[in-house]
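Folds abound. Consider this:
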Amino acid sequence: MNAREWFRLPHWIGGLQWFFFIFANIIVIPITIGEAFQLPKEKVASLMQFSFIVTGLACLLQAFYGHKRPIMEGQSGLWWGIFLTLATTVQAQGLSLVELGGSLAIGVMLSGLITIIIGVTGTGPYIAKLFKPGVMSVFVLLLGFTLIQIFLKGMLGIPFGIEADDASIQLPVAALAVAIAIFVIVVSIKSRPEIRSYALLIGIVVGWILHVLLFGVETEQTSTTLSFGLFPLGPLTWNTGVVLTAVLAGLLNLTNTFGALKGSDALFGRATTNREYAKSLTITGFTNIASGMFGLVPYSPYVSAIGFLRQTRIVDRLPFIIGSSLFFSMGLLPPVGMFFTHLPLSIGSAVLFVAYLQLFLSSYDFLKQISLNSSNVYRVAIPTFVGAMIMTFPPHYFASFPIMLQPFLSNGLLVGILLAILLENVIDWEKIKA
């Protein structure tokens, strides 16, 4: 890489665009985790800081040593949904949030180790063959159901956790959140392409300002020093059901790596090599071991980065490296993390509610790759409807199952994906005619 390239203004402008893209995708995640696990502000600030540091570092490692493409490495939507769903269900199964956090840490680190083994041995492309278009369609749609449900609760002012059973919609908060969601949709549809790419960031800024003007700002005094501590969600605790659920989630999370790299092949004019897949998976594995230690949502390449690349046409690596470096540097400033803990959850949820509506289109794109008729529609209908229905069941419905199986069976996202994998790979649906 020519040293003169670092001083070109277009690269720095592109770097700022990457910085804001990474920022908009990461900023809300630590806040929702802190809310779900009932963490104090100081711990949420630490989660925020380490999210900045680990995300920036993960992106740089991928750019220099991994797949070497400008593809964001960020906290996975699949893992995010698993964290928040378990936080709202396991308490009904007799497990405290502290025990859940400790068990998740073990499961996340184990899944990171397994990902490293898959990367080092080069078996990733063979595993990818299990995730056919029918599986991916179900996966993306159920992931959308999971996250949209969470964001909608956040927009309406309904707290996370089992104690939320008696909660009600906070009308003033909900009204502002809905207005911001509509505003972001309008900006995304009506504005010029160069403005459209900042729709999420604009929504966060405008919504935050309006929230402060209408409802005031928290005056809670908190420390501005970075609190370093391992396992902030809870000390290491072994719960077989949670650990197995996390390990399975880690295996399913591999779909993001294959989706992001394979989906970007056309942009770079060549196919991703098996060696690049292996190096990318290895870095993701090490990053996820760090995630387990610091209480972060685990990582994977972002498929949504492909849309950003297409929209901005910034396909050079250098702007991505600049943006990632800026994001990493921000994590070294503790007051920054504390400042962003005050972002209203309802506003962050409203913005991400709009962002993740795009998952419906992604699911539809996968669905178009298979031939459906009245006789083989069961390949996607069964896992989709079963998974969606399980999401609506109260956690105590599963009390009759062995405790080890309850965290998995009560998770509609995981059950639906596993059903889809079995149905797609056991039955040859293409031979079934209407």
